[in-house]
From TrEMBL, chain A:
Protein name: dihydrolipoyl dehydrogenase
Family: Belongs to the class-I pyridine nucleotide-disulfide oxidoreductase family.
EC number of this enzyme: 1.8.1.4
Annotated S-S bridges: C124-C129
Organism the protein comes from: Olea europaea subsp. europaea
Domain of life: Eukaryota
GO biological process: 2-oxoglutarate metabolic process; response to arsenic-containing substance
Gene Ontology cellular component terms for the protein in this record: chloroplast stroma; mitochondrion; oxoglutarate dehydrogenase complex
Every FAD/NAD(P)-binding domain range: 87-422
Location(s), subcellular: Plastid, Chloroplast stroma
Keyword set, alphabetical order: Chloroplast, Disulfide bond, FAD, Flavoprotein, NAD, Nucleotide-binding, Oxidoreductase, Plastid, Redox-active center, Transit peptide
Cofactor(s), by name: FAD
One matching Pfam family: Pyr_redox_2
TrEMBL record, chain B:
E.C. number(s) listed in UniProt: 2.3.1.-
Source species taxonomy: Eukaryota, Viridiplantae, Streptophyta, Embryophyta, Tracheophyta
Peripheral subunit-binding (PSBD) domain location: 182-219
Domain of life where this protein originates: Eukaryota
GO BP: pyruvate decarboxylation to acetyl-CoA
First-level EC class: transferase
Name used for this protein in its record: Dihydrolipoamide acetyltransferase component of pyruvate dehydrogenase complex
């Protein structure tokens, strides 16, 4: 964030300054914040070089800070290029994906509009990652304060820790609205047109928005991006009443803390909520359809995570069962969950609890999009796309000028993946071919301690190695050997590297331990940039930091090729 | 991944048809070490699960957690228990199919490598027998563990009518029939921990469910005990095979501001040995010895690198050579074990711990070699590189606090040895000889603690007399 700070030091008008700092704040929530801040600084620098006098809103248009373009941008957010369209780009859905695409589009000089029928920020900001981080921040502290042993080992004495539910809920809510306004301001600051209402595609390059009915407005756009996201998936037979049987949407409001809650699904969402609820004193019962908890995680990491996050806590679980029917609490009866065997469908008894949280996954939100107008058939609700996010119609043909990013295409249902896909699409429509490497997108689960991963899991890598006939190796390091982790009394943790010893290519990295979510990026960047382990070994890490866990991990890998010198390319001196 | 070393206790054989147990287990037959035939006669086996040696330096391991519970069906290659070695936590797999009949060493407890930590039964029918075995395993002491969970098998039985589907259901088997027991997750955990039969409890929670408080009440724990979370319990002085049950965290009055520092491994070992020593009937005999001659000798040989420790060890060794009973051990309370060599262990305080490097064959080595050897041992002890045989092979222990000015003290006899000698400071003392002449001589007090099952007062007196003669006339030491 240093770059953001230096922003306000540049000799610009006061209006500009305040605008920018608002915008810079907004970037805090996006993974690309630094890059954008850096970019803006560049604009400012060039401005001061040219002694441009700008008193209105300043908008960065291109990497070169072309003088003309800057001026053009000052009037509005670009002018539509030839072809008689209202906009160069219209994005349906102002979640994190749409927001990322819009910012990048403005940067590319495209005239951009974004349609939102609900609140800016989408699921992530309003009902997902953001408020849940607020709750998890609380749960992390509660956990620490309640752990007498942990505190004593620091020599600290803490009287019984308690919490005020409303205070916790307010924190989550305040955070969401703060991030939401940051996001809105950042788009307004750049001059993105925010169109309110439901967006419907009428045909190629044509769509309407509004509340439905006659009041709708028609617009044309050279390119359209669908970024409508997803909603919590509620399987059949489950009656959500929003009080005792809830989804993550309700849970994040934290309207009550049940004594005993069943969480259906033990993926990221379920796991994070179990962390929150147990820290606040609830007991938790997991109901998982697969044979093991935490499917999707690397099995070894999952196992360790279970030992730390499940077994010692007030949690039990039923695996290999479906919740076939869930009846909310009423008439003096508890919530009743009927279980059936996931394979044989035979009844497996019932569970009676105070509340049930449905965390079985998310379903794409694509209704009312008008996909039928362009002959696109969703698959289980998802919009089919190719590797460049181009929408595929019912005949398997590409629909020109139509893209779909984020949860709606189901490729990788993560906020930052949506944003990355959006940027990739904007690159394409501005004439640069770009294919996003999904294997370089990290994922994180913000339990205490955190879990993070990028690339392939061990079984996936093994399968790939077998199929493609290469050798695969694994190396691991423990947080127990890390000075910083030990200083924090958080030695529990493991980092695992899956790689090709013949080339030094990273296939996957999995981390379980303190701040794992922040540590993964060294690996994900390396995958994205194609950096080899033999080169990473020369990178220096500050001591003592948690990042040394990865340093050690890379150093412990046995790569058979000689390291290429870090200064292979000619360097201007 | 390590695998358990398991012993076979070839049990009684019984015949049963496979269909009686819904669990698929045929593979067990193929794995059985030496059942040549595959006749449909099941040979019953009860196996002990041993604490594995996970590294070359590992002498004991701590059970981090049992992945399986008593009554769980295990198949070959499945992880059963997580063991913490000196290096890492490792999942330990089973070599055999079977049922985990009993857990001998509970979570958080420590066991030496090779000790039985659990019992594996091959069939359900053997569980009871296996349990009995487990009880005898931990027989030495109270063993409060076993008379609980009479039948951990009802869960499998419930499933019996259904075909052999089940990839063993969730460990905490759900109360599956109506009119069943509803207990919260933590209540179930507590019940397991405190061996409370949850089926017999009456729930007082909402909708009649069993709450953690109900279980605590049934287990006789004052609910106000502790909040939840923390349960890491500093390893309860490790495992004297069946040490104190975790239940008795005796209620010392809490003094505000006190800090709790868990034992290091070495301190744990010391603590364990000290507690064990209580089972040996000991007695003490003291003896004053004039040391002028010894002091003179010491002054002479000091420049050659000879230390007082070496002089004392050599003297003790020479005296022991004449009194083999003092160098003997009582292993079983029924016999003398005469040791073939005289190995003098010398107590050394080392940053917060205590270790006893051993001067082996101290009677045979000359003073100079002994001093040399001692120097090496101390170096190694400081670097924590002592090999086990360099600190646990002693037959007699020497403890010297003389250099601190202590004039006499009383040593605790370490388990496995017959006697220990406590040496006080040598001080100028006024003596009257038989003719009534006074003189001032240096004198030190030695005090020997011995195991009275094998060493009697007269033995010790005779030994001390010999010892004092050697000290008072130390020429023989240099020969």
């Amino acid at each position: 964030m240093q770059s953001a700070i230096s922003l306000s030091l540049s000799p610009s008008s006061s209006i500009t300054r305040s605008d920018c700092s608002v915008a810079a704040n907004a970037y805090l929530c996006t993974p690309r914040s630094l890059r954008f801040c850096g970019l803006r600084r560049k604009v400012f620098e060039s401005k001061s070089f040219h002694s441009l006098k700008v008193s209105t809103r300043l908008v960065p248009c291109s990497r070169e800070s072309n003088f003309n373009k800057v001026c053009a941008a000052l009037q509005s957010n670009g002018t539509p290029s030839k072809g008689g369209f209202d906009y160069d780009l219209v994005i349906i859905g102002a979640g994190v994906g749409g927001h990322g695409a819009a910012l990048h589009a403005v940067e590319k000089g495209l005239k951009t509009a974004i349609i939102e029928g609900d609140v800016i920020g989408g699921t992530c900001v309003n009902r997902g990652c953001v408020p849940s981080k607020a709750l998890l921040a609380v749960s992390g502290r509660m956990r620490e304060l309640q752990n007498e042993h942990h505190m004593k080992s620091f020599g600290l004495q803490v009287a019984a820790a308690g919490y005020d539910r409303q205070g916790v809920a307010d924190h989550a809510n305040n955070l969401a609205s703060k991030i939401r306004s940051n996001l809105t301001n950042s788009m307004k600051a750049l001059g993105v047109d925010i169109l309110t209402g439901t967006g419907t595609i009428l045909g190629p390059q044509k769509l309407k928005f509004g509340k439905g009915g006659s009041g709708d407005t028609f617009v044309t756009a050279k390119d359209i991006i669908i970024a409508t996201g997803s909603v919590p998936l509620v399987p059949k037979g489950i009656e959500v009443d929003g009080k005792s049987v809830i989804t993550s949407d309700h849970a994040l409001k934290l309207e009550f803390v049940p004594e005993w809650i069943a969480i259906v699904g033990s993926g990221y969402i379920g796991l994070e909520f179990s962390d929150v609820y147990t820290a606040l004193g609830s007991e938790v019962t997991f109901i998982e359809a697969l044979d093991q908890l935490m499917p999707g995680f690397d099995p070894e990491i999952g196992k360790l995570a279970q030992r730390v996050l499940i077994n010692p806590r007030k949690i039990d679980y039923h695996t290999g069962v479906f919740a076939s029917k869930i009846t909310p609490a009423k008439d003096g009866k508890p919530v009743i969950i009927e279980l059936i065997d996931a394979k044989t469908k035979e009844p497996k008894g019932t569970v009676e609890v105070d509340a049930a949280l449905i965390a079985t996954g998310r379903a794409p939100f694509t209704q009312g999009l008008g996909l039928e107008n362009i002959n696109v058939q969703t698959q289980r609700g998802f919009v089919p796309v190719d590797e460049r996010m181009r929408v595929i119609d019912a005949n398997g043909m590409l629909v020109p000028h139509l893209y779909c990013i984020g949860d709606a295409n189901g490729k990788l249902m993560l906020a930052h993946a949506a944003s990355a896909q959006g940027i990739s699409v904007v690159e394409q429509v501005s004439g640069n071919d770009h294919v996003l490497n999904h294997l370089s997108i990290p994922a994180a689960c913000f339990t205490h301690p955190e879990i993070s991963m990028v690339g392939l899991t061990e079984p996936q890598a093994r399968e790939k190695a077998e199929k493609e006939g290469f050798e695969m190796s694994i190396t691991k390091t423990s947080f127990k050997a890390n000075t910083k982790a030990l200083a924090e009394n958080e030695g529990e943790g493991l980092a695992k590297l899956i790689y090709r010893p013949d080339t030094g290519e990273i296939l996957g990295v999995h981390i379980f331990g303190m701040h794992a979510a922040d540590l993964i990026h060294e690996a994900s960047n390396a995958i994205a940039m194609g950096t080899r382990i033999q080169d990473l070994k020369f990178a220096v890490h500050a001591h003592p930091t948690l990042s040394e866990v990865l340093d050690e991990l890379f150093k412990s890998a046995k790569v058979k090729v000689n390291s290429s010198s870090p200064i292979a390319q000619p360097v201007a001196v | 991944m390590a695998s358990l070393l398991q012993s076979r206790t070839p049990g009684l054989s019984f015949s049963s048809s496979l269909s009686s147990t819904p669990v698929r287990r045929p593979s067990a037959f193929f794995l059985k070490p030496r059942s040549g035939s595959r006749i449909p006669v099941v040979r019953a086996k009860i196996r002990e699960i041993f604490m594995p040696a996970l590294s070359s330096t590992m002498t004991e391991g701590k059970i981090v957690s049992w992945i399986k519970s008593e009554g769980d069906v295990l198949s070959k290659g499945e992880s059963v228990v997580v063991v913490e070695s000196d290096k890492a936590d490792m999942d330990v797999e089973t070599f055999y199919d079977g049922i985990l009949a009993a857990i001998v060493i509970n979570e958080g407890e420590t066991a030496p490598v090779g000790a039985a930590i659990g019992i594996l039964a091959e069939t359900e029918d053997e569980i009871a027998e296996a349990k009995a075995k487990a009880t005898s395993q931990s027989s030495l002491a109270p063993a409060p563990s076993t008379p609980k969970v009479e039948e951990p098998s009802p869960a499998p039985k419930l499933d019996a009518p259904s075909p052999a589907v089940a990839a063993a259901p969730a460990p905490t088997a759900a109360p599956s029939t109506p009119g069943k027991v509803v207990a919260t997750p933590f209540a179930k955990k507590l019940a397991k921990q405190h061996k409370v039969d949850i089926d017999k409890l009456v729930g007082t929670g909402p909708f009649g469910r069993i709450t953690p408080e109900d279980v605590e009440k049934a287990a006789g724990i004052t609910p106000a005990s502790k909040s939840n979370v923390a349960a890491p319990a500093a390893p309860a002085a490790s495992v004297a095979p069946a040490a104190v049950p975790p239940k008795a965290p005796s209620s010392f009055p809490e003094i505000p501001g006190s800090t709790v520092v868990p034992f290091t491994t070495m301190q744990t070992a010391v603590s364990k040995n000290m507690v064990e020593s209580l089972s040996v009937p000991t007695f003490r005999v003291g003896y004053p010895i004039a040391t002028d001659a010894l002091d003179a000798l010491y002054e002479k040989v000091k420049p050659k690198g000879v230390t007082m420790t070496a002089l004392l060890a050599k003297s003790a060794a020479m005296a022991l050579a004449q009194h083999p009973v003092v160098n003997a051990t009582c292993k079983d309370g029924k016999s003398f074990t005469y040791n073939s060599s005289i190995n003098i262990a010398v107590a050394v305080a080392i940053n917060g711990g205590l270790i006893t490097p051993v001067l082996q064959d101290a009677d045979k080595l000359d003073l100079y070699l002994l001093s040399q050897k001692w120097k090496e041992l101390v170096e190694k002890a400081r670097a924590k590189q002592l090999q086990p045989n360099e600190y646990n092979s002693g037959t007699f222990t020497l403890s010297n606090l003389g250099m601190f000015g202590v004039d006499r003290f009383d040593a605790i006899l370490p388990p496995g040895q017959g006697a220990i000698m406590a040496v006080g400071a040598s001080k100028p003392t006024v003596l009257a000889d038989k003719d009534g002449f006074f003189s001032v001589k240096n004198k030190m007090l030695v005090n020997v603690t011995a195991d009275h099952r094998i060493i009697y007062g007269a033995d010790l007196a005779a030994f001390l007399q010999t010892f004092s003669k050697i000290i008072e006339n130390p020429k023989s030491l240099t020969m």
